[in-house]
Amino acid sequence: MRRAQICIVDDNATWLAKMVRLIQGADLGDAVTYLHPMDALISLRARHPDVLLVDYHMPALNGVEFLTALHAAGVSLRTPVALVAGDVTEPMKLQAWQAGVVEVLSKAAGREEMVLRLRNLIRMAALSPASDSSDTGSPMVARAVIDEGGDERSTLRILERLAALRDENTGKHTERMARYAAVIAAGLGLSPTDCQRLRDAAPLHDLGKIGIPDALLGKPGELSADEWDVMRRHTTIGYELLRDHDSPTLRLGAEIALSHHEHFDGGGYPLGLSGDDIAQSGRIVALADVFDALTTVRPYKSAWLVEQAIDQIVEDSGTHFDPDVVNAFTSSIDELVAIKAHYDADEAYAPLVPLPN
């Protein structure tokens, strides 16, 4: 099996040596180090590591500026990038996530924590479509990573990030949509525990897209009928990946993956279910998913006003959406709009936290 290639850019030679020893001692892979960001910029035009660690405080360019320069130079690394700093701050984390960083690591972290975080980044890289193999995002590879084990929270986070990597144009869609879904679920009377579990599982709704070819996911314009048939398979791919897991949250993710494109009147896919035959979780996520899609900019559309989105969703009550879910949605609209405003202000680019009881 090919060893992971971990690239580290940091102007502190002592820290670089420490990280190389850590990586070698934990047998995480092979480390390639750079003391100056300009050297790394030149090298990374040809080298494509599995994981990239970038120090925030560096001469000439800080870590976020380095990533911006990397993209400006035409280097597109679709691999997990982590920002590293000795003094991690909230503004720094916001900058990092906005720049596409998937992890922010503190240099003060203990050895065990650093090894676990690096191992998670390597697991994420194993499913990234950036690898040399054209089949890296296949369900077979995903199944191997899921079956590897690990705690539920870690697995959920990796799978959520992987799902997001397959849909680069939707920004923080999964986080917003998950929060919307939890609010709607509360409006339906679900318990705080069930609302939290739904919020944790909802970001996995499109996980099955790791089994859809890149050319199809990124195709401009309309898809042909045959291409739509392939695209629709993401529902069953996600379901098959998650359904047998020991974790109740991952099994709920399987249920959502399979059902979130079903329509209340039976006109959806993949099974053409209707009414209460559709899992309640799928009925909730279906509406939350559409609300977010309507009210955010996508490559093919501008953002709708919230009022326009509400009108469309109400109009589709009983056809696309469960009327009870629509009622819970409209009753909770103030809270949903507050969540949207929070993200629009770039103030919520952080991992999901538990809902208040």
Q: Care to describe what's here?
A:
It is built from 17 helices and five strands. By secondary structure, the protein is of the alpha/beta class. Helix 4 (90-98) links the parallel strand 4 (81-85) and strand 5 (103-106). Helix 8 packs across helix 16 and helix 12 (234-242) runs antiparallel to helix 13 (248-259). It is elongated. The N and C termini lie far apart (46 Å).
| Unreliable sequence segments | 129-138, 347-357
- Could you tell me the radius of gyration in angstroms? 21 Å
Number of strands: 5
Q: Strand fraction band?
A: 5-15%
Strand order of the largest sheet: 2-1-3-4-5
Sketch the topology as an H/E string, one letter per element: EHEHEHEHEHHHHHHHHHHHHH
CATH class of the largest domain: Mainly Alpha
| CATH H-tier superfamily of the largest domain | Hypothetical protein af1432
Number of helices: 17
CATH A-level architecture of the largest domain: Orthogonal Bundle
